[in-house]
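Could someone model flavin mononucleotide with this protein?
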Amino acid sequence: MTATPDPLATVTTLTTNQDLDPQRLREAFGIFPTGVVAVAAEVDGEPVGLAASSFTSVSLDPPLVSFSVANTSKTWPTLRRAAHLGVTILASHQGTICRQLAGPVEERFAGIGLHTTEDGAVLLDEGLARFDCSIHDEVVAGDHTLVLLRLHSVENADTSLPLVFHRSGFGRLEATA
Ligand SMILES: Cc1cc2nc3c(=O)[nH]c(=O)nc-3n(C[C@H](O)[C@H](O)[C@H](O)COP(=O)(O)O)c2cc1C
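Reply:
Sure, complex below.
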């Protein structure tokens, strides 16, 4: 009789209480590929916003999505004042726009095609899907705040490929046959 190999025998033991330094964590988190969204609104007559790869779907009923924002963000205290926020899922060709949305505040929206809803949500042209949202809840979670957004409308007409963020760089999905 042949012995069945123990699958656990090949698993590397994880050290407990190791130093989870931020750089090591950032690299480990970056192994998980994500899309990227623009979260933006008009506040005091100006578009404000940022790029976020922490976006995820949360609930269908009620319709909720989330993203997490660093507690050091200079933009979030202003952005959260908006009645409605726009979330745009970026397309594969919008890597430069993504970097711009994470760069100097005064140039974030320079030359970017966008429109603003009556409620002040700012939505980017050429995104794959656009959500009109309002803040449902904010939960402080360590050095970030988890923001739950309630959806009011969705538009997803574009079927082209999304921008993919992976290991601190941009990639793209390969369409399979
Ligand atoms: C691809 C990408 C993804 C990002 N994702 C997030 C995120 O999920 N949460 C966050 O707080 N900042 C994220 N940032 C950084 C913000 O876009 C922005 O640079 C940061 O909030 C600093 O600007 P601020 O002080 O004006 O908020 C990301 C940046 C890039 C380039």
